[in-house]
TrEMBL record:
WD repeats lie at residues 254-289, 313-335. This is WD repeat-containing protein 79. GO terms for cellular component: Cajal body. The lineage of its organism: Eukaryota, Metazoa, Ecdysozoa, Arthropoda, Hexapoda. Gene3D superfamilies: YVTN repeat-like/Quinoprotein amine dehydrogenase. InterPro entries: SWT21/TCAB1_mRNA_Telomere (IPR051150), WD40/YVTN_repeat-like_dom_sf (IPR015943), WD40_repeat_CS (IPR019775), WD40_repeat_dom_sf (IPR036322), WD40_rpt (IPR001680). Keywords: Repeat, WD repeat. One of its GO terms (biological process) is Cajal body organization.
Length: 436
């Protein structure tokens, strides 16, 4: 077939040159369109919004609605929060914070939940759909797993139940998953149980699942590309290679924590893993290529069995964690190279770049916004009532002070506090141009 000279196909060298030019143009265009903002550059946090929960007047003393985790949606439009004894809440980010900077004199917004799912029982774990986009309603959903219930998928627009994924044991009894997550593509659900990993197809709710036996309960899960890391209450972290068909091949185990592992997270480059445990004041940084010993050890305050979250910024430069003392700690890789080898002589030294005492109670929830310089923090924990103070109040009310046993004293190891703070707060962690 004859080809007109004006329509002649380019030769191979011209094709390669054009392809290289197009790739460079596309990369430059993407860089110009969006560049992740600098964080903590002003060394000051500005409160943007808050929301709080309190016990109703007629509720019993053991009903305490403290926060147990918060996570930004992948598109950054809303924040998912789990509140003890009050289910799951979805809180939207005010639209004036979508773009630009903020004025230091900006009024603090008091936020209300746009979605409230009143789930009964203790929520063990929750996660967003990884491809969530508010412009595509089908992708707007999250997963929860809770006490005496299957893994459930919820709609983020109206809070309705989309489907349930049930795991059954050898005697055909439904058992709850301890942890749950999606694979990176969002096509499968990986649920961790006491003795098994079970894989469900997102498109097939019900009891159809693949099963892989594990040696210890899966208290937390995280996936990255073809890797799956599993934290356990027996203080170990197991690393698996996932196949597209849902099969798992063991890579190895990591040992180093003194308490049960409660939260793990990959860094954005996928080469390192950060882990935290209960009643363990250390954050361990692992290189998954050489996982026999921790790469670095960071310190925080964790005095209870409660899960204390941490987060790594999408740019991979900052590691932020909460603590039972209410202090937020930040490690900047430019100031403290937290992702490199540890100096064993300074393991006990607190080398955090910044410390922000933001809460009067335990700060258990941390989540960095995926696109904006905004940090979400959640506070709260279970508070025990002091029996001696209650007895004194009862005696004083009866005007019978003499009947109080003066030998009754509080054990010095027992600490009772009524200083409860159950709040979700959004903080600006970017530049503040007009601050004085």
């Amino acid at each position: 077939m004859d080809i007109d000279a004006d329509l002649a196909l380019p030769n191979e060298s011209e094709i390669n040159q054009n392809d290289d030019t197009n790739i460079e143009t596309n990369v430059a265009t993407e860089a110009e369109l969006y560049q992740y903002p600098k964080l903590f550059s002003s060394k000051t946090l500005l409160e943007l919004c808050n929301s709080s929960w309190s016990r109703s007047y007629n509720a019993k003393n053991n009903i305490q609605p403290y926060l147990r985790g918060c996570k930004w949606s992948p598109d950054g439009t809303c924040c998912l929060t789990v509140v003890n004894n009050d289910g799951v809440h979805v809180t939207e980010l005010p639209k004036d914070l979508y773009f630009g900077s903020v004025n230091p004199e900006r009024k603090i917004d008091v936020l209300d939940s746009v979605i409230h799912v009143k789930e009964a029982g203790l929520v063990y774990d929750f996660c967003w759909y990884p491809g969530m986009n508010s412009n595509v309603p089908e992708t707007c959903c999250w997963l929860t797993t809770r006490q005496n219930a299957p893994v459930q998928m919820w709609d983020a627009f109206d809070g309705s139940l989309r489907g349930s994924y049930r795991g059954f044991n050898a005697v055909d009894e439904m058992e709850p998953a301890l942890s749950v997550t999606f694979n990176p593509e969002g096509t499968k659900i990986v649920a961790g149980y006491k003795k098994f990993l079970r894989t469900f197809d997102v498109d097939r709710p019900g009891r159809d699942f693949g099963e892989h036996k594990i040696n210890s309960p899966a208290s937390c899960l995280v996936t990255d590309r073809n890797l799956l890391a599993i934290g356990s209450w027996n203080t170990t972290i197991s690393l698996f290679n996932m196949s597209e068909s849902g099969n798992y091949k063991s890579i190895g185990k990591m040992h180093g924590h003194t308490g049960g592992v409660t939260h793990i997270k990959f860094t954005p480059d996928g080469l390192k893993l950060v882990s935290g445990a209960r009643k363990d004041h250390r954050l361990l940084v692992w290189d998954i290529r050489y996982y026999r010993r921790p790469l670095n050890i960071l310190s925080r305050v964790v005095d209870t069995n409660q899960r204390i979250y941490f987060d790594v910024s999408p740019c991979g430069k900052y590691l932020v964690t909460g603590g039972t003392d209410g202090v937020i700690k930040v490690w900047d890789i430019d100031s403290v190279n937290w992702s490199e080898s540890v100096d064993v002589t300074e393991v006990s030294k607190d080398n955090a770049t910044f410390r922000f005492p933001l809460h009067n109670d335990c700060c258990n929830s941390i989540s960095i916004h995926p696109l904006r310089p905004i940090l979400a923090t959640g506070s709260g924990q279970y508070h025990f009532n002091d029996p001696v103070s209650a007895l004194e109040d009862s005696v004083m009310d009866n005007d019978n002070v003499a009947s109080l046993d003066k030998d009754v004293s509080i054990n010095s190891d027992m600490k009772y506090s009524s200083n409860a703070e159950n709040s979700l707060v959004f903080w600006w962690i970017g530049d503040l141009p007009n601050i004085t």
